[in-house]
């Protein structure tokens, strides 16, 4: 008998989830479903993302609601739009063979009119982010008097994002006798407080150990010099040719800069951060989900709720300030029973942070050596050989050319042909990694740091400070417009502005040191097209959002990324030109880089 039937799930739901490939319940489903099916208990489930939580609460909901009645009976609150859409979609899939099941996804950044219309038409399950839900409640557009179940999904994330008060307000709109089911990856005291305030003697379930990460995640760190970080990062990425990863940075600027550098270096990468419009974010996520991006560079906040399966690596380009965030970050890999690797790039000073994280998550990190150039070449070579082995041959199309191809190659033996095909790509890597230095910290210490001052980095011109503004060419600025805009808001003369480096979603510009304060003052609470405009000193994180008593300024501390342009220090530049198809994931080759 199907194990889901044994748990008490009916045939039409089991048929639907069987189609989705669910053969047996995940641990949380196995334990939670029988409890939730009774409908008698409040419930607290401590489980990581990717453990099958959605079905753990979704199947019991579908079992217990009365779908002949078109009123909201269940409310699922979750932190992000992405998760909201995902849950709604999953519930619809589970209900594929059931009649009259109506689920609505209610989230910000989308047309509220459409959502209100769906609610008016009649829904039984509302999946919502707290802000938009409150908005709809405020319009008296929904009746929660028949709600029997409230699910708080990723409760810790919701609280992290400041939704505590919204949640209180929403819950106060629902009937006293409803049951509350709370799921959270971690159990900080704030979450515990919700359980105490809103639940009666809840049934508690922990899958895995409290506060620890998923057992399927391997935690590795690489000890490097800060200035070698970008080079080491690229080398690690190259060492895993099939990597499908999320790279975490600490600030929006760093996110954007790393993504830009990677794109320049020929990788399929893009950034996800709070300065992007919802539409831009959706676009990036779509490309990532569809595997047209190999690396997603993200801030913690922007990456919340990302639930893409098969992420092979999470890379902490910068360690998070909060250990909780490390758990969230690493939980983006090893979903649905798969394994994954969480990598941290650290310098000596950051080792204490690693030890601290180890204590909290109860897992040891393993130190790994940054691969040598030759090791990367070998890895790439065999990845290419595998690709050749597995490539799908379009028989009909290729057959037309085959005689001609064979004729051209007839003077070569099979071995020679193989060697040449392999060399097409291999040579590029050999070239790139010729004389590549050992980036592990001991080797760097032994070598001394003589070349530190020669690191190429972008510094501001003498007497000028390099600032960042979160507006760029996508906001339809050209350099002239930007100059005018800055002068106008800061009330300074155009002569005080130096170089303006206009990028897609942001711009760097230089301002005379003496005028920097005026720029910060002038841009306090400025909005552009409904978006808060933010000024920061490039590289030090000081922001106009945080007032003007920030940290020291006047320097552009981009040294860490000195190696960004393909290790120019070693006379090798822009590997994208020498790297061709290796960087393209799932066999998709960018025309512009393809010479063949
Ligand atoms: P969730 O934690 O609900 O986001 O689920 C993570 C992923 O695991 C989703 O892609 C689900 O479709 C999948 N999944 C959930 N339960 C099962 C199961 N019992 N068997 C196989 N896959 C599952």
From TrEMBL:
Comp. bias (Basic and acidic residues): 555-578, 585-596
InterPro entries assigned: DbpA/CsdA_RNA-bd_dom, DEAD/DEAH_box_helicase_dom, DEAD/DEAH_RhlB, DEAD_box_RNA_helicase, Helicase_ATP-bd, Helicase_C-like, Nucleotide-bd_a/b_plait_sf, P-loop_NTPase
GO molecular function, one term: ATP binding
Motif Q motif in this chain: 2-30
Keyword Membrane appears in the UniProt entry: no
Limits of the DEAD-box RNA helicase Q domain: 2-30
Domain Helicase C-terminal: 235-378
Keywords tagged on the record: ATP-binding, Helicase, Hydrolase, Nucleotide-binding
Region (Disordered): 538-596
Pfam families recorded: DbpA, DEAD, Helicase_C
GO cellular component: cytosol
Helicase ATP-binding domain segment(s): 34-205
Family: Belongs to the DEAD box helicase family.
Name of protein: DEAD/DEAH box helicase
Organism, scientific name: Sphingobacterium humi
Taxonomic placement: Bacteria, Pseudomonadati, Bacteroidota, Sphingobacteriia, Sphingobacteriales
